[in-house]
Amino acid sequence: MKDINDLLLEKEAELQQLEKEIEALRLSASLLDQEDSSAAAETNVAVASPKSPVAAPSFEERTSGIIVSGVPALRQFP
What we know:
Helix content: 55-70%
Distance between the termini: 46 Å
Order of helices and strands: HHEE
Number of domains: 1
Shape: flat
């Protein structure tokens, strides 16, 4: 059995790594957005960007399909 302090240090290190990865992804996304904006300006094409993030469907929404053999079927999304 692991010592709780060792486990806590391990999880904190994982959290720090994830925070670095998230920051890198945010930076990459902003750079890609700038590239898209400059490319659109060069070609005079409007770039559609979402105004708000789209929420993932809830479990109830995903499983509110037809019940097959007593098990609810997941709805298929295009």
